[in-house]
């Protein structure tokens, strides 16, 4: 039933159909303190300073005023929370938000949850000092685990028999560092760890009135002591997965709750008691806590499968059958684990004729236990041999790791088997590194010095409803251009790119120290640009092929309904850009903003633009209502004019193609108070964005650049426009995509260098004078100017005069820092030519 006065759901005596997890709002789901500090003072502060200001006594009334306002315009979700909650929801958990905010904040809190966690939160509940407290709320709701950042709430919840997770986001939540955690609580440092931890808790003890038990995580750092091991049948209350749940009540105590089997998101394998579980240890003597109101009924929670290396073949479940193989003929199978006789692939041959499917284990041969030597002996013999085969469930996921770039190699010329690595991924880590896949990395990187940049165990992949990535190497790794901390875990979207660098984190150590007080989300964004400063030795694309044995269907690209074209910008001259760099597609439902078209806005605004924050992460949403007609809604508080109409946040209007979008802001440092247009976009038809034909003009004296070198697939020419050429990915997008080998493109910056004509003196002559040409380096990557065998290196912002025949050499990864030294991917040369 629903308590209308408090908005708190009070459960009836009926059994809960799904396990419930309670989540605090402030600093767990919502970055409240920083948003409040920015709103109050107009300037961002460190996380600790923001927290102190937000929760100080003299700011309490102001904070309540802020929370009751439409703070969702400013507040952002905590990093990683959206992905983690989506995984928990998919796995069958019911998620509830609990908060100590005043009840007057209900509507604004609901708006925040609806905006940032749509369809994920099942209920919002308010606690208070006068009651009910969070512990009482969680007990009433039948919560399995509470996630909170405040120790007083943790202590209260544990006292009511509720398990707790203390969120200490990347160790920055210093306000919960002062007290050791009680038994029944665990400290975790990221939302990825929380999702993995919650999903790893199999078969918790539960009742309709309370949930309390002693629990042990499998993968997270815990502050609980070890659990005594014994066989499942040795005493009542021992869960079948090997975890002990102490109780002071007999097995029949508490309301009878029928067991409910939840949908399983992974293919679980029966876990025998003999399989060791990873448990965190505390010093001996740590007290074990038992709650007197602990019930012994079991609520089925999502199970996690185990890796093949942890499942002895004598304990594997599944049908067993005998298959007869003929000697001296290929069996037609692929044995992925020779020691265990585990088969993950069936090829053409006898296995195909026998109707065998992948994923089985060879238990015995002619009645003798399987061994590799025995199998080889039988295959070379003269009589047929019988193999007892036990079918296995497929792995949680099958993943393809494809090398798309590697220093010193042309991967496009390699056969797929040399650059493709297929892995079976389970809930336990699957390791990748030169010691784990020695043959693969040896063939991919014949250069031993280069191969040593790959650690023995470089990173790991695991499955928790989605693909999880953990960096294990001291060498820097970027996942989709986001810095991955050592031992840090993150979810990888399908098709994610992993940039494996040769150097460690020392060169960004200063940035880490400088950003130590930043929030984790700001910290990660702060490090995004480092991918341009480091040279990856290899880039891998990670693609999920199968989940639970079923192929992953490739998503068909949505049809393009129109295109958004940038027609003017205060920051850069967009007229000199190719049409492909200043347009992006508009589908039937398209969100527009920095989060959705990051590269586009970086190009048309420039990375250092003062207007960057005037474009919101999600600024507009366009929905096609009729062919050529779109409904536009403003999602941002920033100013925007759509088809000449000023849209406030939440307002919408209907437009046709050819409508304009003016983004407005007050110029920084300007005394003006009226916002001015700094960026104009136009909605154009899909077939109306091609480059317009250029009018023929009289030929005049000018200059151009010719592209050549061993790293170039085809020579190209770039002509000067208005006496200037800027070379870079943002300026010649198609050229760099098609004319350069793929592994070379990473060494070309968005704006690499510029050549421009300088004004020259002299009187009138029959022929125009040749103007002086000046080369200016715009990138931090090394650039050289070569003239008559003399080579001069340029750093960023350096400039030098050039003339016809001069060559501009770009760095392509040479270990000695030269244009074409050992380890480079080839020569990349631009030659200056002029009339």
From TrEMBL:
Residues 257-267 have a biased composition (Polar residues). InterPro entries: 5_3-deoxyribonucleotidase-like, HAD-like_sf, HAD_sf, SMAD_FHA_dom_sf. Residues 219-290 are annotated as: Disordered. Gene3D superfamilies: 2.60.200.20, HAD superfamily/HAD-like. PANTHER family: NUCLEOTIDASE YQFW-RELATED (PTHR35134). This is FHA domain-containing protein. It comes from Cladocopium goreaui.
